[in-house]
Amino acid sequence: MCAFHACDDPQPRRDLVINVLANHRTWNFASIVVDKPRVNPSLYDPMSFYPKFTAMVLRFVFKGRVRPGASGVLIYTDTLPFQKKKALAVEVAIKGSCRRDLPSLPFQICHHRRESNAWIQVADYCSWSVFRKWEHGNHNAYNLLRGRLAATEIDPMSRGDGTVYY
Question: Closest Cα partner for 50 from 7, 80, 29?
Fold first, then answer.
């Protein structure tokens, strides 16, 4: 099985993948940008960090984007490359968001290797395009995928007092 990984793929492959994604009209994505040096140290613990920021993006996705008549929600993540404590925090955050924002719908969380799920690879490319915009000021991929972006990426750090902790 072929797997795409935006940061590792050669530019010609990235161009092809982004072109396919940009021209496929039946999907969109949401993104959250967490500028870690601006995160209050009280949230550094994985049991606080992951639930807080995972819940923000999931709440956005769930509000108004679950089709009427849906019988359930499937949430796919890449295999979690964390130690047990961090992996548990991510799992708790996802389950908490689902229970709160999808009270009447059953949900299932699946952790798959990215190679086995095309949507995880799509998420990788979308995340990479947002990262390149914010971290390097390179808007090329972002601008090509902007039409698939459901809304401007969530920037929770913009609501803070601007303190940089490290």
Answer: 80
What are 45-102's pLDDT values in tens digits? 877 787 788 888 888 888 878 888 899 999 888 877 677 777 888 888 889 889 999 9
Name the nearest CA neighbour of 110 among 72, 155, 164. 72
The gap between the terminal CA atoms of the chain, to the nearest Å, is 41
Is the C-alpha dihedral spanning 51, 52, 53, 55 positive or negative? positive
80 domain-assigned: yes
pTM of the model: 0.83
Total of domains in the chain: 1
Whether the predicted pLDDT of 141 surpasses 90 = yes
Is 3 among the domain residues? Answer: no
| Domain, as residue range, for 94 | 11-65+72-159
User: Do 125 and 21 contact (CB within 8 A), yes or no?
Assistant: yes
- Report if residue 59 sits inside a domain: yes
Q: CA–CA separation, 106 vs 73, rounded Å?
A: 6
Rounded CA-CA distance 52/38 in Å is 14
